[in-house]
Amino acid sequence: MALNIQMPQLGLTMKEGLIAEWKKKVGQPVAKGDVIFSVENDKATVDVEAQGSGILAAITVEEMVTVPVGTVVGLIAAAGEKIEAETAKVQAAQPGKADAPAASAAPVAPVKAVPLADHRPSADPSAVPAATTPAKAAALQQKTPPADGFVLASPLARQTAEALGINLAEIRGTGPEGAVVGRDLLRAEPASLPAYEKPKLPEKAASEITQPLAEDGKVIRLSKIQMISAERLTESWKTIPQFTLYDEAEAEAILELAAEFKQKGEPVSLTVILAKLLAHAAAAHPLVNGSWLGEGKVMSYSKVNVNIAMDTPEGLVVPVLRDCGGRGFKALGADMKALAEKAKTKSLSPRDYEGGTITLSNLGMFGIKRFRAIVNPPQTAIIAVGAISERLAPSEEELESYRAIEYSITADHRVVDGAYAARFMATLKSLIEDPFLLLL
């Protein structure tokens, strides 16, 4: 009995996923536990393992296509197994197939059953598989739309084509059932691409333009994580009344503390030290470690779980360093190192993102001295930390130098006001300048 491969639900809030990459090709053997494809959801890129062994008989959803959770994306069958009936089952399970009246009423053309041993990907992309009917083969090769004008295409291809003004009917699709997918637009012949036309501007606006518009460039597709991040931060900026306070503190004590851990070979970075210090400051000002619930209600959390902003090739990710107030520097440092390694290899799990109560963003390693961050909803506050730099202070006889660190808090004004946030900043400053206060 063949096994349907479905889009998994990789978190309670996940409703759809994007096929980032197929790790196996049609016709290749698959063992239970093998990674067969990777999925981008709203939080991470996750490898999906096979739930059974056999041969990858079919791929029904191409790469870079987004489908709802539960959608059948492929088929695993035993070597030599006839797949005629199973192929029909896979097609029937696709979203939208059962809802199309014409499809449900029309008779299904018989398809020759072919053993899986004969299914091998062709080196020639224009070749038609042996199991394809003459009618389907003609449909795959045609470049003109059907009588009703509809062109089968993935959502990504439709959005990109609309943005670029490309006629999908002129693009040969290489996706399932001959659908046009995103990669087909990159292979489009120049004749299929629209000629550039400068936009028509009102006379006043046109007279104010002193530089010509750029006439070349390319469309860059953001990752699923980046798209979700953009949506969340746009929502944050539009719906949360945010304000920012800035301050600086002498950094000599935390630098000495970090140096001691480094000398002992323990992975406790400045970011880890700052996460623990802000957790203790938040414990003293609990509204900062909360969420706005509406109707005058605020959820204040008992533990401080700090989202740590990390830069990766896929964009910004914010995994959670848990219980920063209740655990020691060494344990937090070990967890931070593990999260950083997982972020580099794109192996963060959905749980690595869940449960954050406040966010820390450190751009000091890039030389940025101060910046304003955007609140990460539904949290109340985000702490932004800049680079450590030299300062001069007058002494009795001459000027003395010391090292200082700048930081800021951006907070939800519905939960905390400026005075409350200022008191939190003062507490954090005292802890940065004397972290041994944690021992008292």
* Alpha carbon gap, first and last residue: 66 Å
- What is the fourth-level CATH superfamily of the largest domain? Chloramphenicol acetyltransferase-like domain
Q: Taking strands numbered 1, 2, ... along the chain, how are they ordered across the largest sheet?
A: 9-18-17-16-12-15
The average pLDDT score comes to 78
Q: Approximately what portion of the residues adopt beta-strand conformation?
A: 15-25%
Query: What are the segments in which pLDDT stays under 50 over at least 5 consecutive residues?
Result: 95-145, 190-199, 204-209
Number of strands: 18
**Largest sheet geometry:** 6 strands, mixed
CATH architecture of the largest domain: 2-Layer Sandwich
| CATH fold-level topology of the largest domain | Chloramphenicol Acetyltransferase
- Helical coverage, percent range: 25-40%
Q: How would you describe this structure to a colleague?
A:
By secondary structure, this protein is α+β, with helices and mostly antiparallel strands. It has two domains: 3-121, RNA polymerase II/Efflux pump adaptor protein, barrel-sandwich hybrid domain (OB fold (Dihydrolipoamide Acetyltransferase, E2P), Beta Barrel); 240-439, 2-Layer Sandwich (Chloramphenicol Acetyltransferase). The chain is built from eleven helices and 18 strands. The chain has helices at 84-92, 101-105, 134-141, 155-164, 182-186, 203-208, 224-239, 252-263, 270-284, 329-344, 418-433; strands at residues 3-6, 16-22, 29-30, 35-40, 45-49, 54-59, 66-68, 72-77, 242-250, 290-294, 297-300, 306-308, 310-312, 315-317, 320-321, 358-362, 381-394, 399-412. It has a six-stranded mixed sheet, covered by helices on one side. A four-stranded antiparallel sheet has the order 1-8-6-3, covered by helices on one side. A hairpin with a 2-residue loop joins strand 13 (310-312) and strand 14 (315-317). The protein is elongated, with a radius of gyration of 28 Å. The chain starts with a strand and ends in a 7-residue tail after the last helix.
